Backbone:
């Protein structure tokens, strides 16, 4: 099994550790390292997933390049040689999983775009005929494609807490009409472009979340983009409405936790080896299908 990086440790430097990412403030820029930690139901598990941080970072890099000319993003470099000292001296921890990025004023909402009815949206629909308060047609089956994309923003929760779904009016209250309209429309635009591309690779993009930040007077795309951690990717050849779908993400972990009646308020648990291995393989398969490249772990 590959070396698992649960947390980066840079001598003499304090970092901020999120659910998955370790963030180092460099003044006018940030260094963001994607660890191999795994969060499920907003709880960090005790086991890591081999190569997960590298896969997430390389998929985000792929999409940033793919969307070049459509939307500006925060990536400066993912080459450890470009990182300032002392970070450039830690390739064994940082290579392949780390991005040097522009520091922004982060907009305090997550922009969720849904193309299929699944997850929490499906549960709400069964009870109320709505998803995040948006009324939908009657008679939809689990994982049906929605008549059109819907924008369902959410607040950003602290570690150990759950994001709260909000409506567009509340989004406007939080960040203002101009910003809310821009991130809604741009999120839908890039979702459509990414969805068409993914479909050409035999992958359905069911939903995703985007995050945005402001630098100078520009709103730019930040954080991870269209990864298995922020999106639901389904193999198109196995898609069948009316049931849960196979997916290129941590669904093996979610299913296992449901089976053992995991307490979703935590703490995290140690995962069985077979669940870890299957989950790692799914992340890698997602990278290879999307990019058309063989995954080569950074050493």
Residues:
């Amino acid at each position: 099994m590959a070396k698992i990086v649960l947390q980066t440790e840079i001598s003499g430097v304090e970092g901020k550790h999120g659910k998955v990412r370790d963030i180092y403030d460099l003044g006018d820029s940030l260094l963001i390292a994607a660890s191999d930690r795994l969060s499920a139901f907003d709880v960090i598990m005790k086991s890591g997933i081999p190569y997960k941080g590298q896969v997430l970072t390389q998929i985000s890099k792929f999409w940033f390049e793919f969307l070049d000319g459509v939307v500006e993003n925060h990536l400066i470099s993912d080459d450890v040689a470009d990182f300032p000292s002392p970070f450039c001296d830690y390739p064994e921890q940082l290579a392949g999983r780390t991005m040097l990025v522009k520091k922004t004023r982060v907009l305090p909402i997550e922009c969720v775009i849904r193309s299929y009815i699944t997850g929490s949206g499906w549960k709400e629909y069964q009870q109320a005929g709505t998803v995040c308060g948006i009324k939908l047609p009657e008679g939809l089956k689990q994982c049906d494609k929605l008549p059109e994309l819907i924008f369902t923003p959410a607040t950003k929760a602290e570690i150990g807490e759950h994001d709260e779904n909000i409506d567009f009016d509340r989004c406007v209250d939080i960040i203002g009409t101009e910003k809310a309209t821009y991130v809604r429309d741009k999120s839908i635009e890039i979702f459509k472009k990414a969805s068409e591309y993914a479909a050409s690779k035999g992958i359905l993009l069911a939903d995703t979340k985007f995050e945005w930040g402001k630098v100078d007077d520009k709103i730019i795309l930040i954080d991870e983009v269209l990864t298995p951690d922020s999106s639901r990717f389904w193999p198109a050849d196995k898609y069948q409405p009316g049931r849960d779908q196979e997916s290129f993400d941590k669904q093996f972990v979610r299913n296992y936790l449901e089976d053992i009646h995991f307490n979703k308020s935590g703490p995290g648990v140690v995962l069985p080896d077979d669940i870890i291995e299957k989950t790692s393989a799914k992340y890698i398969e997602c990278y290879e299908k999307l990019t058309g490249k063989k995954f080569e772990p950074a050493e």
About this structure: The chain has a mean pLDDT of 94. The chain has two domains: 1-103, 106-254. Helices lie at 52-66, 91-94, 119-128, 168-175, 177-200, 251-259, 273-291.
